[in-house]
Amino acid sequence: ADSHLRWFNQLGSEVKRDSDAVTANNFECLQDRDTCRVLIKEWQCATVESPIEIGLESEIVIGSNLGDLAWDLLYSCVLGARVGHTCEVDWQPDYADSHIGSPPVERFRAEILVTCLVSMATSYAELDPDSRLQLAELHKTRGNNYFRSGQLGAAILNYNRALAYCLLPGSLATTPASSVSDWSADSRLRSLSRLIRQNMAGLQLAAKPNCNPEFVIANCDAALVKAIDDADPADMLAKRFYRRGCAQLALGQLDLAQTNLARAASLAPTDRAVSARLAEVEAGLKRSEARLASGMKAMFSPGKR
């Protein structure tokens, strides 16, 4: 039997957590602002040094030192872990083509043991909506800044953290094609969560050649939940339909891509990128229909005698 819990982060990196090491002191999963002690057993990264000494147990506050990529990488490992879990991450985003500014994280490997929980912060559920909104906006802004500078790995870490403040506890998806929908009793948090999902989809499309269309579609699906009921702006809706259509095109789902791109074109009729992509899909459908017709004709034509 597999002794690891397996799931994928938003960029498709596999994360393993050793479930055999869990002790009786099995607290709730670690989250932002919890104080815990960790031991870094391994840290391999060509461009980013470990923020704490390797092999020495250290106390950290999850979410402190924000804006530092090394700390963001460390937090991405231990968020969601429990005391006694060994977090093993092998992350190969390879964003050299899309990275602007400081060097990209070409590969990141780490093995980190969570040794104890020192103190628990106020849970997301206990934060009032205004506080959650403020914290979510803070991390979304950091994610946007990283995205603009081409640091896609750091951007997705901040988007994930922002999303956690918008969602109800326990509903943060840990699989790429989750059926869990973003929902909150506060319409401001609902709206912000959809905007974050929209940005995630755009980031994932930009992560060439490592774009995973399924991630894009899952985020666009979530970004459209209650979007019309909450009267999201037409230009925002157009981006979501457009990005979902682009992902479906990448998967060869031309009919679905045409439906979504046509919807985007109706919402943003002057957007040349949308019109061009819709024309590309429609041309592809015509070629497919022509090939099908040719094949049918050959199939039912009388053979040579």
TrEMBL record:
Transmembrane segments: none annotated. InterPro entries: FKBP4/5/8-like, TPR-like_helical_dom_sf, TPR_rpt. Coiled coil: none annotated. It comes from the Eukaryota. This is Uncharacterized protein. It comes from Macrostomum lignano.
